[in-house]
Design brief:
Blueprint lengths: L3 H32 L5 H14 L4 H11 L3 H13 L5 H14 L5 H10 L4 H13 L3 H15 L6 H13 L4 H13 L11
């Protein structure tokens, strides 16, 4: 039977190997992360262009991305100015595209869209302008009605207060006006509720 001392030494050796490997991993990570830093305007501009090829970015998002790739604040400002001058970043345009896409594709309400735009650093004046443009071509009540009808068809059994409350909360989180949600929900659940179909609630 191995002695207590030999067991202790074996455990200590294993722990030493583990921590040595762990330190090696972190060292490699730091070296790799450092290698990702860029030092020239051309390199940082290329980082920006590649990012914009993947998706549109707000000014705030672009600045964050560039600051992660360069510690040189002056270099970041030079590239940001170049992107702005070339029309590659424009918060007014970004807000309109974002609002239209979120409204048409994701069926989100104006309050949710505004909240998400603010989180991306967009100024209120651009948000208001974007939402006004979307509102001209969007019937919020009709959108809410369609979402309610779709959800009601997925419910099993009777539409009780618990399901109605859950649907109401979900639509509010989606950014729709509480007054419109209440009106459409009341109309559909008390007067003109479509027959429910089998599905998951």
């Amino acid at each position: 039977m191995p002695s207590a001392l030999s067991l202790f030494l074996t455990g200590a050796c294993a722990a030493s190997v583990f921590f040595t490997s762990l330190l090696g991993y972190f060292y490699s990570y730091l070296v790799f992360a450092k290698a990702q830093q860029v030092e020239t305007e051309a390199e940082l501009y290329d980082v920006a262009v590649r990012a914009l090829m993947r998706r549109a970015l707000s000014v705030h998002e672009m600045r964050q991305k560039l600051e992660r790739r360069s510690d040189n604040k002056r270099l970041v400002e030079v590239v940001m100015a170049r992107l702005t001058e070339n029309g590659m970043i424009d918060d007014a345009r970004y807000a309109k595209q974002f609002a239209r896409q979120r409204t048409e594709s994701r069926k989100q309400g104006k309050f949710r869209v505004a909240r998400d735009l603010r989180a991306r650093g967009i100024a209120d004046r651009h948000i208001e302008s974007a939402l006004e443009e979307v509102a001209e071509n969007t019937d919020e009540a009709a959108m809410v009605r369609q979402l309610i009808e779709r959800k009601l068809r997925s419910y099993r059994g009777e539409i009780d207060q618990r399901k109605t409350a859950s649907l109401y909360s979900s639509l509010l989180r989606g950014g729709f006006s509480a007054d419109i949600v209440r009106r459409e929900l009341r109309a559909l659940t008390r007067q003109d509720v479509p027959e429910t179909e089998a599905g998951s609630a």
